[in-house]
Amino acid sequence: MSQWANTRRLRIGMAQINTTVGDFAGNRQKILKAMDEARTLHIDLLAFPELAICGYPPEDLLFKPRFIAENLRSLDKVVEASPGLTIVVGFVDAKEDIYNAAAIIHDGKLAGIYHKIYLPNYGVFDENRYFRAGSKCPVYGIAGISVGVSICEDIWYEAGPATTQAYSGAEVIVNISASPYHFGKGSFRERMVATRAADNVAAFALCNLVGGQDELVFDGNSIVLDEKGQLIARGKQFEEDLIVADLDVESVFRARLHDSRWKKELLLHEEQGWRSAPKIVISEAPFNTEKPSLPPRQVEVQGFPGEVYDALVLGTRDYILKNDFEKVLIGLSGGIDSSVVAAIAVYALGSVNVVGVAMPSRYSSPGSVSDAELLAKNLGIRLMTIPIEKVFQAYLDTLAEHFKGTEPNVAEENIQARIRGNILMALSNKFGWLVLTTGNKSEMATGYTTLYGDMAGGFAVIKDVPKTMAYELARYRNSLAESELIPRTIIDKPPSAELRSDQRDIDSLPPYELLDPVLTAYVEEDKSVEQIIGMGVDEKAVKRAARLVDKSEYKRRQSPPGVKITPRAFGRDRRLPITNRFEGW
Q1: Annotation marks residue 326 as catalytic
Q2: What pLDDT, in 10s, does the model give residues 395-442?
Q3: Per the residue annotation, which of 116, 236, 441, 555 is the catalytic one?
Q4: Who contacts 192 (Cβ-Cβ below 8 Å, separation ≥6)?
Q5: Which domains does the chain show, CATH number per domain?
Q6: What is the pTM of this model?
Q7: Does the active-site annotation cover 152?
Q8: Are 336 and 505 in contact (CB under 8 A)?
Q9: DSSP 379-403
Q10: What single-letter DSSP state applies at residue 520?
Q11: Is 50 labeled as catalytic in the residue annotation?
Q12: Strand intervals (E) in 386-493
């Protein structure tokens, strides 16, 4: 007799799919494909990510009635295709208002709907703008097992819906999520879910979205944990995956039976009249008691810098392909930033779809030109060389009368950057290639960039990557290739914009090894200048960096979108007025 006939077990599946906002047919196709696979594996409960029907985050598309209607029509088609399955899938529910919702579907029928209770409204989130919060958290009887369903933010609260459901009898908690990535987020999320599982003495399954959507990247990394908070199964990072695990629900019952803390907490909740969740019975038994055994599953978790590199690759690839571009264009200076961007683009799209452009000037060193050529050769990409000297001289001649009596300064330097930006955009217009900008977070923070020059382009790959991290990513990429794919001369040379003779970044900025920790403290952690100085950092350098950050907001507001990989990226994460007289430094 099968183990499933005499024990209480649940085979759970989590389909971490890469959705596209508004691509109802494409998203549905991914959902139906996972459903077909779930049937062959005899999965009892199959979960999809938050808002999988319409894609996440839909933002102001939610104000369009047609978008909501199409989302509901797509859900209906998924319901029609669900005979023999029980699934949980995210969609937008429309009643007297709209809700971020989970549909519980069983055997061709919509059996229940859960509305997200905690709507995040911080950082990159703005859900209060769109949705009404739910107020009920029922427990569903699925295949004879009591299951609680929640959505993303709901699970981050210690006394949230999961606790209500657990004390109301839920033995398994399923959370469908669209949790955006930043470095370290996956391990932090896993620790949090493990705590919830142990505190509530319940098995927890979190199905997370994967893929890039504008600035955001979702890492997948879905997890299943037992009632002790121990990992049972994990999804791949930055890849679509179907995670299948067998849950021994009987062990949840035994753990609660022997847990005096759980019993006392349960009694306390009952005595205090704490809210309880109603139970909705969907199915009394699994569709199949004879199930094929699951193959062994081993998923390695990337650490730094590998996971950051993979996030940048995924974010870049999805932004380009989901916006119907095929090829990208990159200005290659022979410096570290453009080299890292080119390497990421090749990894994401293939060398045939990446074009480099070298645009030497009178100030370009012979080494920078040869480094750009060697990099292009190593990456296998086409390199176009377009010198800018004649155009630069024409600018100087045209402006000579008006610049008469002044010393050369940043104006002449930025003319070169803008000439390069114009050339890149001309090629983009002519051939339909998307320009990838190459500025890093340290430069964006301090305004060490040129509007309509090196900031000109459609996507800023390393916009959220500090300069010191760019070097680590270069070394990591070389380790993958087991060669100097990015030439050692590029990694070793002092950084320079090469817009005047003997120029070095250190002439305008503190050394990056000093600057980047200051920027992290000031931008990401909101520490004051006094607090940073108190950490032992040079006072002059701190005040200088803070002043540059505060005065450069107008530039950042005009920059292209880029992949978020730190806890607090410029843009949606950090919103400051351009016009203000507050001097935080």
Answers
A1: no
A2: 999 999 999 999 999 999 999 999 999 999 999 999 999 999 999 999
A3: 116
A4: 155, 156
A5: 11-281 (3.60.110.10), 306-556 (3.40.50.620)
A6: 0.94
A7: yes
A8: no
A9: HT-EEEE---HHHHHHHHHHHHHHH
A10: I
A11: yes
A12: 434-437, 459-460
